[in-house]
Structures are given as C-alpha cells and as structure tokens.
Design a protein that fits this description.
single chain, alpha+beta, five-stranded mixed β-sheet, 16 helices, 15 strands, elongated
Length: 579
C-alpha cells in the first residue's frame, strides 16, 4: 500500500482546530466590541413590539405609464414622505422601500396616526412661486438681502441661478413686482427701486381693504422657522392661488423665511429634469424641460422676474409647502432651462428627482395600517421571549438527557450562535434599518431547532462510526464529511425557503424570513468554525476518548462492534511431490 505524499492532508484530516477556534472567538469578540463601540447594545424594536403605527403604501402608475414605478422615482417618493413625516414633529420615523413597488412607513408611538396617514398617502404638490421677500429665520424682521448680492439657495448652493441652455432674447420690461403686489394688495416697487425701499415686514398696516395682506405680513414677521412646529404649521398652506409664508435652508444649512406669491407654474408642467454635467464649465447643473403649456407659463414668469431686483428676481421651488431651491432669474426662459450653482453630483440629482416628481404619474394606495400601543407591544415582546426561553429549555433538556457529555458541545455552540445573532441584529439596526418585530422573534425561535438539528446530525454520524468499531478520534474525522454534506443540504433548503419568502412577501413577514435566513447562515458558520474544531479538541481528552459512560460516546451503550483488525491471508503449504 502506497503511503500518502508528504504534505498532503487525507480526507477528513484534523487540520489545526485550535487556530480555527481562536479565529472564531476573535470574530465574536470583534462583533461584540463593535456593538458596544457603536452604542447599539440592543436590537432595534419594530412597531409591533415598541408601539407605534406602520403604514404600507403601494405605488400605482397611470395606465400606459407603468415604467414610472422604478427605483429612482421610488427613492424620490421616500425622501418626500420622510419630509412629510418629519414635518409632523416625529423623531426616529423610518421610511423605506420594500420590493419594487411598496413603501413601509414606521412611525413610533406618540404620533397622531390619523394625521400621519393623511400626510403619507397623498401625492406630492410641487409649485414654482415668485419670491417677494426672504430673511433669516426667526420672529424678528431683519433687513432683506441687499440689492445686487447673490442669493443663497435653501438647498445649500449659494448663487444658484436659472438660465437658458442657449441665449434667448430678453422680454419686454413688464414688472413682476406690480403683478405680485397686486396679488398681495400692496404697493410694489419699480424695477429700479432699491431693495431697501421695498415694503418691509412689520411696516405700517395697509388700508382696511388690504386686511388679507396685513395678516400675511404679520404672519411673515412672526413665524420662526427655527421652530419645527411652526415650520410644520406654515407648510400646511399649499393652495396654489394664495401667497404663502414658507421655510427653507440656505447654503450653510441655516433656516430662512420666505414670503412667496401665488404659484405661477405647477409641478405637472415639468416634462423632465435631471442633474447633468455642463459640458462648457464641467460643473454639475440641473436641466429642466417643460411641457408645451408649461413652457408658456415659465416664459411668462421668468420674463417678469428677470426685470426685478434681488430677491424678487428669484422663483422658489416649493414642495409640500417647503422651499427646496430658490434660484435667481437673469433672462427670459421657455421650454428649456438649467439651474446652476455650487452643485455636486448628489445634490444635482436630488433636485432633479424632486423637480421630476411633480410630473410623475405616481400615486400611492394604503395597503395596510397597523397601530400598536406601547403596552401591547411590551406584552407581545414578553410573550415572544417566554416562548423562546421555553423552546430553548426543551432543547437543552433533550440534549443533556440523550447526549450527556456531548451536550456540552451543543450548548457552547448554541451560545456562540446566540452571541453572533444578537450582535448582528444590534448592528444591523442602524446599518440597514433592521427592526426586531414579532415575526422576527418567531424566526429566531425556529432557528434554535435548525441549529440543534445540525449538532444532532454530526453527533449521530460520530456514533455510527463508533458502532463500527472505531475509536473516537478517527470517528470524529471520518464522520465529518458525511455530516457536512447533510448539514449543507439542510441549511441550503432552509435558506432558499427564507429567501423566497422574503422576496414574495410584504410587511412584517419579511422580518421572519430575514431572521430565518440570517440564523441559517450563522448555523453553517458555527458548525464549521466552532462545533467541529471544538469536537476535535475534546476527542483528545481522556474523558471523551476513553468512552466514559457520561460522555455520550460509551461504546458499550452504543452497541459497538469489536475493533476492526486486518486479517492476513494464509496460503496452503505446497506438497513437494506436486512440485
């Protein structure tokens, strides 16, 4: 019989179990350390356990425009819904896509669920409004932006301006200030009037027939855009025919207060908008294309705005009552326009998506609304933990009674799996928004049985080898290849079922599927890098190697055959006479 080549490991070889086990322990320590370093020492709880409201929305497109339900538009819708939810004064709300056409909104306890449903279920309203005045946020009334100074955009791009891709002639000097002031029923400055001579907030109250204008000016003077509740209140007034007070951020992220005229262009007049690189300057810009009707409206408003002094030569892009950008206008624009400024790729694409959203044929249907009180959530969490404890206790009792000493390997492996699962669930909360809900708890309980099943398969293979008459150390190594194949096939089936369930379901059931898939993967990791090396090391100890009655590997109790021995073939003597 030829000896195996030097340096080549025989199948089922022991390798270096100590090194493998040490590596596994280092990974576990790293995950636990990362958990404490990040401050996320407990998994994030879902609405059904912590209390709150969960709203499931399904995107619907107009007939013939099914392609509008795509990843880009869904991401834009998520941002808009987040803005609305935050406008309610909600903290720690979660808005995320689920699948290709669903959006899940999780609103924690302490929020008016009816108001939340109204906010997240309606289509976004996008308007272009002329700017009448802009001042820093706060109840005071400081001087407006001086004439000739570059205006700051609420989206953080100082000096944004709207221009035509190619030069277009300037329209006749029709004063936009007069038209806007007529809407407000207040005197208007001429185009040559300095900005400091314009009517200021807090100026003497107009005549009695301008009571509406007086109320708006008073509101503009008193609103504090630094206060979230006041920002939410002013954003509710979105009627396009009314002048409004709105809030937005400047180039350094500071809140500003806007006085805006009636809407001149509707968001549905935008045919397309996208962030692109200007071939001439190499800078990121936002390019807009208008519909035929929108082109006429936009040409009319920009013709008037281009004749005004700052800040009245700006138009505000208002989404759901909030100013997202306010570029200035230098010339008459029509079908095509571009917004330039200090954009980067992300900010240009974000603004392009917002502008496009006003023309998207998307609406959302509320598939389900679930509200759970904090008390009920606590009871459900307690019940889930009790069920898990009972299941774990039954598994432990079975292992100790049937496998005796081998149960030590199983219990340590279960502990390693529990540590990995807990650490990953805690870290995945802030990383991908994973929240532990009641179905996810059920998935973790089911995973206890899946993990224990892998140990049982390996232990029974080892016992089979001992029954064949082999000693423990070779039995451990010979049993591993067969047990490994069985474990991989079993876990692959479980993971496949979890993946299919995660893809085809919506809502909380995905929590069950995700947890089941995660724990199935961890089962493979624990069996390969913890259970097998640990079993190899324990097989070298006297307690297990000698087949102690309490080891669970006693050859007599297992009905082992006599040790395998090689038999020599004896040849019959040769008769000399025959020779």
């Amino acid at each position: 019989m030829a000896a195996p080549k030097k340096g080549r490991k025989a199948p089922g070889g022991q390798g270096k179990p100590g090194r493998t086990l040490a590596l596994m322990l280092i990974v576990m320590a790293g995950l636990v350390g990362g958990m404490f370093w990040s401050g996320e020492t407990t998994p994030r709880l879902g609405i059904d356990l912590a209390g709150g409201t969960t709203i499931t929305l399904k995107a619907e497109a107009e007939p013939g425009k099914e392609s509008a339900v795509n990843e880009t538009n869904m991401a834009t819708a998520v941002g808009i819904i987040e803005r609305r939810v935050n406008g309610l004064g909600v903290s720690e709300a979660e808005v995320q896509t689920q699948g290709k056409e669903n959006i899940i909104v999780n609103i924690p306890k302490g929020t008016d669920s009816e108001q939340a449903q109204k906010q997240v279920g309606t289509t976004a309203r996008l308007f272009f409004r002329p700017v009448l005045n802009v001042v820093p946020a706060g109840p005071a009334t400081p001087e407006p932006t001086p004439s000739g100074s570059p205006s700051a955009s609420p989206t953080g791009k100082a000096g944004e301006k709207a221009t035509a891709p190619s030069g277009t002639p300037t329209a006749s000097p029709t004063t936009q200030g007069r038209a806007l002031s007529e809407a407000l029923k207040a005197p208007s400055p001429s185009p040559s009037t300095p900005a400091s001579d314009k009517p200021q907030p807090g100026s003497p109250t107009p005549e009695p027939d301008a009571a509406g204008n007086a109320a708006l000016q008073k509101k503009f003077a008193e609103v504090n855009c630094l206060d979230q509740a006041q920002r939410a209140a002013v954003s509710q007034d979105t009627k396009p025919e009314n002048p409004i007070v709105a809030c937005g951020k400047d180039s350094v992220g500071q809140w500003e207060k806007y006085l805006l005229g009636p809407a001149e262009v509707d968001g549905t007049d935008v045919d397309d908008a996208q962030g692109v690189i200007d071939q001439r300057s190499g800078q990121w810009i936002v390019q807009m294309d208008f519909t035929s009707a929108g082109s006429k409206k936009f040409a009319k408003i920009t013709s008037k705005l281009s004749q005004q002094q700052p800040p009245m030569n700006q138009f505000a892009i208002v989404l759901d009552g909030d100013v997202v950008s306010a570029p200035r206008v230098d010339t008459t624009l029509s079908a095509n326009a571009q917004i330039s400024g200090n954009f980067n790729q992300q900010s240009a694409q974000d603004l392009g998506n917002i502008l496009s959203y006003g023309a998207l044929p998307l609406s959302f249907d509320q598939q389900s609304v679930t509200t759970v009180t904090a008390a009920l959530g606590g009871e459900q969490l307690k019940a889930g933990l009790i069920a898990g404890a009972i299941g774990l206790a039954l598994v432990v009792v079975y292992l100790v009674v049937y496998y005796r000493g081998l149960s030590l390997v199983a219990l340590l492996s279960l502990l390693a799996s529990a540590i990995l699962t807990y650490a990953l669930m805690s870290l995945l909360g802030p990383a991908i928004g994973f929240a532990l809900n009641l179905p996810a708890v059920c998935g973790a309980i089911v995973a206890i049985g899946i993990t224990a099943d892998s140990f049982i398969v390996y232990f029974e293979r080892i016992r089979d080898e001992i029954r064949e008459g082999r000693t423990l150390r070779p039995a451990v190594e010979r049993a591993w290849p067969r047990a490994r194949r069985t474990i991989l096939v079993s876990d692959f089936v479980s993971f496949l079922a979890a993946a299919v369930l995660f893809i085809v379901t919506v809502g909380k059931v995905q929590g069950f599927a995700f947890t089941l898939g995660l724990t199935t993967v961890l089962d493979v990791v624990v069996v390969f890098f913890f259970t097998k090396p640990l079993m190899t090391l324990l097989a070298r100890t006297k307690f297990f190697a000698s087949g102690h009655p309490w080891s669970g590997l006693d050859p007599k109790r297992l009905g082992a055959k006599p040790p395998l021995r090689r038999s020599r073939r004896v040849s019959a003597p040769v008769d000399p006479k025959e020779a």
